Amino acid sequence: MNSLYVICGLGIVALLAEITSLKKRLTAVMIVGLVVAAGLVVLDWGTDITYFSDMIVFDNFSLAFTSLISIVSVLWFWMCGDYFMDTHQTDKSALVLFAIAGAVVMASFNNMAMLFLGIEILSISLYALAGSKKGSLFSNEASFKYFLMGSFATGFLLLGIAFVYGATGSFQIDIISDFIMIHKDGLPTFFYAGVMLMFIGLAFKISAVPFHFWAPDVYGGSPTSITAFMSTVVKIAAVAAFYRVFSFAFAEIESSWLIMIEVVCVATLVVANITAVYQNDAKRMLAYSSVGHVGYILLGFLADPVTSSSLVLYYLSAYAVSSLGAFAVLSIIEREHGNLSLDNFNGLFKRNPFLAVAMTIALLSLAGIPPLPGFFGKYMVFALALENGFTGLVIVAVITSLIGVYYYFRIIIVMFMKDPMGAPTKLSFSENVLATLLIISTLIIGLFPGWLLSLIGS
Amino acid sequence: MLTLFLIFFPLLASLVLLLFRPQNAKMWAFIASIIELIVSLVVAFLFDKSDVTSQFSYSTPWIASMGLNLSVGVDGISLLLVLLTTVLVPFIIYSSFNNTYDKPATFYGLILMMQMALVGVFVALDGLLFYLFWEMALIPIYFICLIWGGEFRGRITFKFFVYTLAGSLFMLVALVYIYFQTPGSHSFDIQALYVAGRALPLMEQSWIFWAMFVAFAIKMPVFPFHTWQPNTYTVAPTQGTMLLSGIMLKMGIYGLIRWLVPLVPAGVQEWGYTAIILSVIGIIYASCIAIIQKDMKRLIAYSSIAHVGLISAGLLTLNPIGMQGAMIQMISHGIIVFGLFFIVDIIFQRTKTHSLSELGGIKNVAPILATVFTIVMLGSVALPLTSGFVGEFLLLNSLFQYQPIIGAIAGLTIILGAVYMLRTFQKSMSGETNDFTKNFIDLTSHEKRVLYPIVILIVLIGVYPDPILSISESAVNNLLTLFSDSTASLK
Question: What is the predicted ipTM?
């Protein structure tokens, strides 16, 4: 909870910074504040304290995700210093911070109303942020599309919550779960409709196929920094919310939603990975890849809905660190060339070897090549699924990860093989440090996954 | 602890090269590989040949929740392959002293990283650890080929990468499947996997056999999984080709010996015949293609498929003679193929061509090179008193015992091998000198320092193979006892 206070406080500080002289150092203040927020998690560890009449609970699951969200946000702020520099620095910072606060709520709600609040706090900030490149038509389109699709999805979610409330008489996750356990056989049909509607609403948020249609356009049109934010912080929060609803509340009636999620999982794996092959813009490609990774997470979740929380946390950490690495390189390339067509990566190894190596490590990890974290994430998903008898799904997932190798390697190949375009790419000191940090954390998560996995026991 | 040093010292050296990019990278890499060689010789010296269990073992949990242990050890079979690696890598690095590569620190760093993974594959005693090293070997060689390779390298090296990655994913699925059959909280320990694998019914052993055989067959490569190989060998820089053919393909053979035969004996017994037939087809097929090759590098690539086919066929007869033949032939093939590719590189550096039709008459201007080439070539066609003879003789012997007709067909390899190698010699060395070859300079002292030891090794192993055979003997026998015990208990 302390972390949430700090994050909200930072948001207000950011708003007030417009009228003080703090403006120049705002990004630094944000970074320090978020580090503090991540650190404060340690104080609450293992306490399971609830707040606001049980509406929000900080158990180890939510604390782990809170700290993951905060750490990723720190790295993100570091990476996107430029984004805040041009205009509306304070407004954008405040919006991002409120989005982070929403993300924390999404990971720690214990009440469906709180889930709704979290999603809305996050989404409304993002609708504005997606359109924050005001002059760009694509950015406007992204914002508008995201808003329309997002509110539509929220509608589904709300109706689902209402149905579930109607059947169980409560918004509280734990009470719903108990109620289901007792009345397992006597639940009304509209309860299942409610579960399904909630699934659709949440599937929109985690951008699972076939509810992903907004993702590529929104990711492609938004400013690259915001795309990075959406595909890391927002994705972590959305998956955490999804996991909380379906694992904490609806695990008892697994048989009713299992088939539905299986279908969505296969569709996500296949469609996203195949579509990614045809993209010629690195940002859109990463957008589809991020949709594809949701498929692997869903597979892990399906394999064991109750005890896969540490696996989901690990997968998301691995994915977030690798994606941040890739987006950090993307934003530098965009600064140099103005767009992110794949040709702009030509000969990056000759223009700036370090940058090319950083990008390669990030992409190899996303592709799931050992000993990088992406491999261990996928490996554990596959192993868990095999153990629980989802052999068919594992075969599909193995094939789609091979397809994944194809499109990630398109970038790697042009970076190392083609002749360079343009002058050598110069990096600032801070960018070098950030890239080093990202490489090291990728390697550490990959080589020593044990501590992260044991963080939230099953 | 020595085993750990053998794995992690090259990694350390590689990281130093990659991070600090010292001026004289090739020298540093060479020194590092020599230190590694010395340590491996110490291990060989301290090694107790009569002991069949793993020596110099070390085991510590790495990722407990996945059942992954950093568990390594050396037995006779591992030791020979580790020695092959540690002997060839300094040669490979030294052979490049005449070439100038762009970004040398990266180049040599990747070679040493490759060495780490190769040694790791040969000493791993944990299924997942083996898989990790197996995959890690792929990354450096892929980048060596991608960055310093020849024309069309993007497409060709990618095919290589995807092919081997796809194969090893099947292997991973099979390993994980057996992992879940181990009792208790599951373990990837090799002995536990052996026990679990052997207890499986024939049906399951069969699909596991194929899942793993395909992974190994792609790496070696065995017909019909070889299509990536000639292009990749041709397009790779010389040192990359040496790594691929000299050491990396032995990973596949080693996998057969250590991770397939004892793991699913019933599967091997059921499908071994099919695999032998595939290997023998590969021998004949690749030899015939080698005969009509115009490009020297491609020719040696195809000859390598033929030789590996013989190794895999002889090994799968599961006869101690065949196994021992496979061991010594792996060593011999590694040395010979290194020599051949180095000679091709020497010719290419002087004439800028790999094409046989443009060469000729080199013997007249470079007699020393011609002599060295003759000896290496005779080793390749398995003339008695060369190292190639010992291996091929044992392998063919085992195949004859297995089934005379298969032995006879596989025996054609000697004739066909003589045809394509002698044709190569004739086209390049004999005849009249032409515009390409008339200014050919004979071996420089640097090249002599690489090739003379190779020649000596070829002859030495050919005349006196006992030291090598005795290292692996007890380990091979132990393996076969394991195999026959478990197949006997099935009946």
Answer: 0.89
